[in-house]
Write a structure and sequence with these properties.
Pfam families: DUF1850. Helix content is about 15%, strand content about 50%. The chain is built from one helix and eleven strands, in the order E-E-E-E-E-E-E-E-E-E-E-H.
């Protein structure tokens, strides 16, 4: 089965069934700019591809143009049409940057408050049995959060 797998400490943390052309997002708070950034990825030919990035302010290391098209949309600079292979996607997750993965209209945060952690996200194939805990974890976190709202 085609999967998107988020690994932390070399173990599957989250997993999602991800057929070709399925997209997901990453968001985080930039450590210097203190603004939220968004990136959209898709699965193409069994690999992750960067499609677009969206942010509010330019700072050190940010290109003035990227992808096939750059435009201003609702106060965000949006760079589209990268089609850049990024599989695996490596991310240094710092506790104060509030990283989260967007999937199916929901956001799934990375909870590593004790230290900065290295996470890698990849498109792979696997069995549901092998990845069962990481397939269930994101949804259990959402259910737990919803239940805590009512308590």
């Amino acid at each position: 089965m085609p999967l998107l797998v988020v690994n932390h400490d070399n173990l599957p943390y989250y997993a999602f069934v991800m057929p070709e052309q399925t997209t997901f997002q990453m968001r985080w708070r930039h450590s210097v700019e203190k603004e939220v950034w968004y990136e959209t990825y898709r699965r193409e030919h069994a690999a992750l591809m960067l499609d677009q990035t969206r942010f509010k302010t330019f700072g050190a290391g940010v290109p003035s143009q990227g992808g096939a098209r750059t435009e201003l949309v609702d106060g965000f600079v949006v760079m589209r049409g990268f089609s850049r292979r990024v599989d695996p996607l490596w991310i240094q997750v710092a506790p104060d940057e509030t990283y989260a993965l967007g999937w199916g209209g929901a956001w799934f945060p990375f909870y590593f408050p004790e230290r900065a952690s290295l996470v890698h996200i990849t498109a792979t194939r696997g069995t549901l049995i092998h990845f069962a805990p990481s397939l269930v974890r994101p949804w259990l976190l959402k259910i737990n959060k919803a239940l805590n709202v009512f308590s």
